[in-house]
Structures are given as C-alpha cells and as structure tokens.
Design a protein that fits this description.
Blueprint lengths: L4 E9 L3 E4 H5 L6 H8 L3 E4 L6 H16 L8 E5 L10 H8 L6 E5 L5 H15 L5 E8 L17 E10 L9 E10 L7 E2 L22 E2 L1 H22 L9 E4 L4 H11 L10 H4 L6 H11 L8 E8 L3 E8 L1
Helix pairs in contact: 3-4, 6-7
Length: about 325
C-alpha cells in the first residue's frame, strides 16, 4: 500500500525592517507608481545586519514545530531550501540543527532557486514514503537582499527576505484540523535557459581571488521579459498537468498560492487556469519576491488568517532560476 504524506505545522517569518517604494526612490531612478504598476510591490522586508538564512529559518521552524505539536527532538530530517546559504560550508541545515539544540539528524541544503519550497516538499514526501516514521522539517528561506545590487533599478525593487517552514510526516499519523494531505507534486526544469536569471559571482564557475573586487555577476542578474514569458507558460503547464492527473480543473481549486514574483505573472497564470483573483494568494505587495520562501510564507500566512479552510483543495506553483518550476496539490 502506498504511503501518503501529510503537511502539518505551518510557520513563517519575515524580518522586522520594512523598506518602502518611497525609500527606493531615494536610492535609484524609480518611483512608487512605476514599481507598483509593473510588479504589484509596495514594500519588502530586509534582514538586519548579521541576520542569516539560518536565523530566519529558526524563527519559521519554531512556529512550524509549535503548530505540529512537536519539539525539535521529534525531527528526523532537516532540509533548508535556499540559494543564499549562510556559507558554502557548513550547510545552513546543519547550522539550524545546532540552533534548534539537536544532533544526529539528516540535514542538508537544497537549491532549486525560487521553486525551492515545492521541490523540498517532494524530497520530504520521498523520505516518508521510504521511512514512514520520519518527521521532516522543510524550511525554504532566502536572504536575497544579500545578493541584490542596490544600484540596479531593474532588480533592486523586486526582492525581500523571509522564511516559510512545514513539517512533513506519513499519513500513519492521524490527520488533524490544519493538516493537509500532499496529493501530488510535479517538478520540472530546463537548464538551457539558466543564463536568463543568474547569481554567478563567487561560484566555482566564476571564482574570486583574494583581494578581487566584487563584480556585477555577484548579484542577481535577470532578463525580465524573457523570465516573465517562460514563467507564465511553464507554471500554467505544470499546474494543468498536476490537476489533470488528479481528475481536476482550475475551477475545482479553492485557493491558489503561486510564487510571489510579480503580480502580473500571478494574475496571468490564474486567468489561464480559470481562477478568479479572489482565490489567489497575494503577499507580494507587502513582502516582495522572497524567492524560495514565497510559497511557504503564502501558505502559512493564508492558513493563519483563515483564507484556507478545512476541506479546501490548494494548488501551489513556483518558478525560478535554472530554470526550475513546480506544482503541488494539497487537500486540507
């Protein structure tokens, strides 16, 4: 008999510092009107100096554990989905393990860029399928402002920092109100398009020597129009794939949580799926594009505020550098 997986214990965290569009007007040649009409973003959260991915992850993970009625000792695996780890080594998941006060667990970082949360869910359900006793922490977190060029008006207006976390177990544990059955996950990628969205500088392909100046490639570089086109097309296709595989269409979905990159992308995907905007999660106005964490933040906040109810079918979808894209179907 197939082992299914449950998503339980949702949690999210965003830093305290708020940066508004008006503040960015003083940094670069932009305006609140320009940013809002093109992206839907009004403000974003920025990590404090010294606040790393593991720090944001710790706060979100504590909330997820509390929601699941668990302690860190209950965990068997820790996955951090990120493209901005604390360091190349040690992995941020190991740093988080230490901050949670536990040892001896399986801990690793995963990088699927902005698709990281949904990719992490699929890795977690694979673990619990193999080991039904496993309890897996999946935390997606990025401090993307650490790789943002604040002199680049095309990209600096887009990004914010945050973390979203869940606990994944097998369905051998009783389903409680607030738990969700992970009915299906679909993942895809196309490496030939990777050059359209990059953070290359300092990697082994573009290494830095002692005393080298930081170049533009150390920061996010993006071909916005091309990314927009591929994001809409591929998110729609993979959502239709996961829906068809489960005998559903867009109107059967009670709530849709897309990657919060740009409201125009989100709106276009929802329209093609036949979903009204009141069924679409929108945190992008307040948090900006928080990369891997955006779907996890949207999921946790939407449940916390009552937008997701027991019995709802919830569709997740993401798109990120690589290119990667993904969709998941949950049933609360």
């Amino acid at each position: 008999m197939k082992t299914h997986s449950l998503l339980r214990g949702l949690g999210f965290y965003v830093p305290e510092r708020v940066v508004t569009n008006a503040e960015l007007e003083r940094l670069v040649d932009t305006s609140d009107e320009w940013i809002t009409t093109r992206t839907g973003i009004k403000e974003r959260r920025i990590a404090a100096p010294g606040q790393a991915t593991s720090d944001l992850s710790l706060e979100a993970s504590k909330k997820a554990l509390a929601g699941a009625g668990m302690t860190p000792d209950d965990l068997t695996h820790l996955f951090i989905c990120t493209l901005t780890p604390d360091a190349y080594c040690p992995p941020s998941a190991c740093i988080l393990e230490e901050k949670l006060g536990i040892r001896g667990r399986a801990a690793m970082d995963l990088n699927a860029a902005c698709s990281g949360f949904v990719y992490g869910l699929d890795m977690a359900r694979a673990v619990v399928c193999q080991n039904p006793e496993a309890r897996v922490l999946v935390c997606a977190c990025d401090v993307l402002t650490s790789r943002t060029n604040w002199a680049d008006r095309r990209t600096c207006v887009l990004f914010g920092d945050g973390a979203g976390a869940v606990i994944v177990t097998s369905d051998r544990e009783p389903k409680r109100p607030g738990d969700a059955l992970i009915r299906d996950v679909r993942l895809s990628s196309d490496g030939s398009l990777g050059h359209l969205l990059t953070v290359k500088g300092g990697g082994s392909g573009t290494p830095m020597g002692l005393g080298d100046a930081v170049g533009d490639d150390f920061f996010i570089q993006m071909s916005g129009q091309e990314v927009f086109k591929h994001a809409v097309r591929n998110m729609v296709a993979i959502c239709e794939d996961v829906l068809a595989a489960n005998g559903l269409t867009g109107p059967d979905i009670d709530y849709f949580i897309p990657h919060q990159a740009n409201w125009r992308i989100m709106e276009a995907v929802a329209k093609k799926l036949g979903l009204p905007v009141d069924k679409v999660c929108a945190t992008v106005e307040r948090y900006g594009n928080t990369s891997a964490s955006s779907v996890g933040i949207g999921l946790a906040e939407s449940f916390e505020t009552g937008k997701i109810k027991v019995g709802d079918k919830v569709l997740l979808s993401a798109f990120g550098g690589g290119f990667t894209w993904a969709a998941a179907l949950l049933e609360f």
